[in-house]
Amino acid sequence: MSALASEMGRHRGSRSGLGLLAAALVAAPVVVGIAYSVLGALGVVGPGADGISLRHILAVLANSATWRGLLWTLWIALASTLAATILAMTAAAVFRAERGVDRFARVVAVLPLAVPHVVAALCGLLVLSQSGLLARLAFAANLQVSPADMPALTHDRYGVGLILSLTWKEFPFLALIAFSVIARAGAAMEETARSLGAGALQTFQVAVLPNLWRGLLPSMTAVFAFVAGNFEAAALLAPSSPLALPLLTMERFTDSALSVRPEAFALVLLGMAVSLCGVAAHEWAAHKAEA
Amino acid sequence: MWRGDPSINAYVDRWVAPRLLRHYGITLRTIDGQGPAIVNQLVVEREARARGSADLVWLNGETFNNLRKESLLYGPWAHRLPAAKYVDSLSTIIMRDFEQPTNGFESPWGRVQFTLIYDSARLPAPPRTVAGLRDWIRDNPGRFTHDQQFTGTTFLKSVLYAENGGAQSFQGGFSKKAYDRGSRRLWAWLEGVHPYFWRRGATYPAGVADLHRLFANGEVDFTMSYNENEVITKVRQGVLPATSRALVLRDGSIANTHFVGIPYNSPNPAGAMVVANFLLSAEAQLEKLRPEVWADGTVLDVRKLPPEAARRFGAIDADPRGVPRDTLRRYEVPEVAPEYTERIARDWKARIRANTK
Amino acid sequence: MNASRSLPRVGLAVVVVAATLLPLAFLVALSLGSEWFYPGLLPRQWTGANWDLLGRGGTKMAGSLWMSVALAVGTGVISSIGGLFAGREIARLDGSRRRIGVALAFLPVVVPPLALSIGLQYSLLRLGFGGRFAGVLFAHIVPALGYTTLFFTGIFAVFDWRVEDEARSLGASARDVILRVMLPLLHRPLVEAFALGFLVSWAQVPSTLLIGQGLVNTLPLELMSYVSAGQDNLAATAGLILTIPPLALLGAAGLAVRRLRVVVP
Fold first, then answer.
1. Are the Cβ atoms of C86 and A25 closer than 8 angstroms?
2. H/E stretch holding A166
3. Are C209 and C107 part of one and the same domain?
4. What is the DSSP letter of B73?
């Protein structure tokens, strides 16, 4: 409290040192974690450390399972982020009114925000598996006879069940942001566009969409990064081959052969790199948008 | 200990723990963890010079082997337990853990045998040999699979034995030649059937619980367990349908013992030994054997016990869902060196799991 | 604008409501049943046993629930206050320094929890925090602080600093400025930040697993243990319990649609 008090009355911009220090403190544990992982991947520290060497990293890069896992994880993250974004934009565009059906829909849409990812994945597993709720409803409606008739949506090659579960879970977050953006942007631009004679679709494209997009971009990046690194949902719904990156990482980290541990650290670095690339891409896109 | 089974949890938390408190003043806290996670944890703790988080660990086989290799176990101590004199020391299944002598570094707790589980309502006449199973799988595509963890590996080992004239081919320590020769036949068997597995072998359930779920919901017609009596406890828990039955493969049912060990950095080894001794007591072993509790086999030699206790062991009713004791004994085969298990698990992942279309 | 009762709109609303609520209803049914096999649309037996938290078999779920609450409350309090200070300072930066500050604050948010936990495990264990509440709390605060810092950076980016200056120039003491000017203005964001930190900790899995060493048991861990044991009914119960506090928080903190500030990078 006294630190806050002593800063009162100072002007903005003259305490830049403190700002960077604060940010550095927030990021410090992550930096420590990255440093340890780097040392571990090089074989310097950790169980299975056997002297500095690049061979563990090279072994991971040379293993096709690494790339298949990485590409698969990227696919899942991209697909669920885009799906959730499109749905969020649609919901924000449609449910615009302050009261009534729109408000009710907005409130309900946000509810799954409270559901943890692992619970969402559990729901996905139990609803979408070949003997799950969907299958039983189909059975009751005489649409199919046995579980094998249902399409395989869980533990499947394209991760459909995983994508659906993650989309279900991420949609409320993006929708919340989208609703807020729409509410703040206000009707002004839209009315201007309409008064100039633009049709509904054009109005949306010119007056609403850019705002939505700009407002959602940071959150989309966050969702992408989060989904790509999420362990629990993949553990419940992903197939055994190709093995998603977080699962592959955990498998290496808990392998009974300790000599394999440095490979786990290399995979950890790969996972971090994916998320960081996502953020870098966002920075680049935001920079371009402002230019 | 592995906390994935409520029956086991109930036995440990609500029968063993209160008695430990009452008779010895020991408070027992159980921590979730098993196998490679335990090895990992102890290794990390040693590297970080952190304090030990466990006094007693539940283990066998590869875990024991890995912990011994890394000198992560306290001991020897098990032969000093008063109750050790009642253990069935003539049984090689009990005195050797995956062919390795325990040397007092772990104390036996229970013994189990591998069985398949089928639904007698859906499948009145199941195949009873590995060869018969292969034919059945080919005739019933998509109705069989196995899990990726310990139970599934035990199934693969059963096939390995069957395809190579029995466990004798692999006894006497690990032999690379024997492994290469034997595994070739195993992969050939698998490559012949896995296109007929559930989902055409493109994916496998992660653990045996997922396999149980598939079985209970009718997606496959078999599940399996390394505990011959799991079918009884799982039916009681409502996880498996009431008409499930256990089945012993005529080619051999792998039997193994599970143990308790003390980590090198246990804060309270003396207390741990008291617990291990209690677990070996006739009272505790009897309770554990009951079908309503855990239905886990005893490691005691009933003949060495006082007559009253011995009588109570004999009086336990056999549940019709399980397999009669003499059938189990007739087909029991021992585990072999842990390196076989590790190699099979690793090579399966590389050869079979990774190459699915 | 369009009539809010038009058919496509109502239809879409129904779809949203159904897609949101059906899976949750399914969980409720699962938590109250046993012996529910395909193709049954309802469990063969109904039972309240799974919800018997204090009775036989339920004590472990209750214990993990309280542990989760303790960790989440601790994380919420510490990360909201820390985020307030950090976000405020970063918002005061200009130009490229601010970009760096925000990028640094982004790190704990963007790095996957599994990766972060594997990286931090050794240090925390070495410092003696392995398997302890304090260690897991720290591991939860790391990402939570990132979220709250970014949140407050956004708040302070649009904050009118003149209020503070004017209060001072009118002769208010430093203490008064805080208590009577800043706190009332910031009290809503503080509550929202607490909710944010709480939720981050509440749903954590890998960090609790790897730092807790099995000694710190939270409800999400308990749930995963039920799932991997095939105990779907208990898993559904745990899942529903896991959903209740966040739901309550969402309502109480009034994360009403119109009030949320968008984080401005």
1. yes
2. helix A160-185
3. yes
4. B
Contact C27, C238 (CB under 8 A): no
The residue length of chain B stands at 357
Enter the DSSP assignment of B317: P
- For residue C99, give every residue at least 6 positions away whose Cβ sits within 8 Å of its Cβ, in sequence order, or none: none
Domain that holds residue B220: 115-254+332-353
pLDDT of the residue at C263:
39
Within chain B, which residues score under 50 in pLDDT?
357
**Neighbors of chain A by Cβ distance (3+ pairs < 8 Å):** B, C
Contact A136 C40 (CB under 8 A): yes
Mean pLDDT of C124-153: 90
**In this predicted model, what pLDDT tens digit does every residue of B176-189 receive, in sequence order?**
999 999 999 999 99
Query: Domain residues for C32?
Result: 2-47
Q: Which two tokens stand for residue B147?
A: 């899990």
> What tokens does C129 get?
């925090």
Can you give the pTM of this predicted structure? 0.81
Q: Which of residues 194-213 of C touch A (CB under 8 A)?
A: 199, 202-203, 205-206
Helix ranges, chain B (H): 6-10, 17-24, 35-47, 61-69, 92-95, 130-139, 150-163, 176-193, 208-216, 230-236, 269-280, 282-289, 307-314, 325-331, 338-348
Closest CA to C70 of C249, C236, C219: C219
State the Cα–Cα distance between residues B58 and B11, nearest whole angstrom: 14
Q: Is the ipTM of this complex over 0.85?
A: no
The string of pLDDT tens digits covering residues C100-124 is: 888 899 889 889 989 899 889 888 8
Q: How many domains does chain C have?
A: 2
Contact B356 A241 (CB under 8 A): yes
Inter-chain touch C233–B207, beta carbons under 8 Å? no
